[in-house]
Amino acid sequence: MVLVLQGHDFHFETENICRLYLPQEKIQTVRERPTDAEGVVATAVLTETPDGADIRCTLELDDFCETETAHIPHTTPDYTAACELATATALYRLFARLFGHEQSWGVVTGVRPVKLLRSKIAELGEQAAMQWFADTMLVSERKLALSHRTWEAETPLLSLSRPDSFSLYVSIPFCPTRCDYCSFVSHTTERSLKLIPTYVELLQEELRVTASVAAELGLRLETIYFGGGTPTSLTAEQLAVLLRTIEQSFDLSHLREYTVEAGRPDTVTAEKFRVLQNFGVDRVSINPQTLQDAVLENIGRRHTAAQFYEAFDLARQVGFPHINTDLIIGLPGDTPEGFVQTLDGIRALRPENVTVHTLSMKRASNLVVRHLSDYSGGEQAAAMSDYADKALTADGYHPYYLYRQARMVGNQENIGWSLDGHDGLYNVWIMDETQTILACGAGASTKLKQPDGPHIERIFNYKFPYEYNDRFAELIDRKEGIREFYKRYPL
Fold first, then answer.
1. What is 160-478's CATH number?
2. Could you give the CA distance from residue 400 to residue 149 in angstroms, rounded to a whole number?
3. Which end of the chain, N or C, is surrounded by fewer C-beta atoms within 10 Å?
4. Is 281 helix (H, G, I), strand (E, B) or coil?
5. Architecture of domain 1-102
6. Could you report the average pLDDT of every consecutive run of 10 residues in the chain (491 residues)?
7. 106 exposed, middle or buried (CB, 10 Å; 0-12, 13-18, 19+)?
């Protein structure tokens, strides 16, 4: 499609609106309409007038050609932002008419809608902020209620974090196989077996250096999160080495939560779980994504539903107090009936946490690159999401963190559900950008949070394990950026 912008540079939000309805389309953003433009053509024009801005948006496709207008007075607070929102909203209304349906999240396109709601509540008060979400952002009643419930659950958890708090993220970018929906920088253990011993050795050194910097700055470690990839792709011995390094290097006296993803049931063993428990890990995530074996095969996961049940039972036997299971709605080959069977199977186990993701059709995933699936199934995804909301609520779960991604099937969301007293602090704090996260390993991103303000800076590690191994000395030099940040923003 062609997106013509004149009199402004609001390309980010206008492109996001286009992707809500045309997620597969390549967007050509230009200043003048090409004479040979084909397909969907959207034009967004802003004209400054003596008293403000006139906005005129037009959408064309075949016989459809309609226009939306708006006027923003100069006296409007946050004038430029108001012009951008009005332009995006006008374009959204046109797409809704062209395609015959509105989006449940309206014109909210950002990753963190609950954080947006929270900022508006602080600014306007609770009722006015809710009204703003409904009237200005055009959020549906169901998603508004979901956001409000999540905000209520998050609020007391956010207050637990202190200005000197930080979390530690450890990246293990290896998996048994690459799932077709995945775009993370993860490598199969079959192809990367030779890299792993060196990777583990260097990761120990990065952990030691990071611990030294944290101690020097007086930072207080509150949560640890092993992610990936699949951390339990490592052997029990390799996991023990890393956990022991953390135990010996960091002050764990203030630790509130210790999480290790055991996402692939085919990587789980009793020995690995005992190692995790012996080093204080209290939260594991075992992720079937679906309990439909045919769907599992479709997406490239080499395990069955039966293996998930075995892994979950093993985690219960070992005695982890918090077990999470991840599910994905909108997987190719799945149906609302299949999802109901999956969720009901999970509900019978009563895990402490259930995270319900919506399939995101990421450009680097096999689903997109190899054209294994498309973006259809929006109504089915909405039905799955609605069932999860009703069923988990009825079972006593509450939503405690929520985020969104681009190109999600049905434009839904990812949401964590928890039984009372089992909310995952790391998940809440990273989504709200509450505190510093010091990250180690390939593909990891350190996020430095100003202790008494909103400013955030990032330090990126090399993405690929071979880069991490080959350029480790340069990576360690980047850790100096942590000290420099806290010199500028002292505790």
1. 3.80.30.20
2. 8
3. C
4. coil
5. 2-Layer Sandwich (3.30)
6. 97 95 90 92 97 98 97 97 98 97 94 96 97 97 97 97 98 78 54 88 98 98 95 97 98 98 93 98 96 88 90 97 96 92 98 95 52 60 95 98 90 96 98 97 97 96 94 96 98 94
7. buried
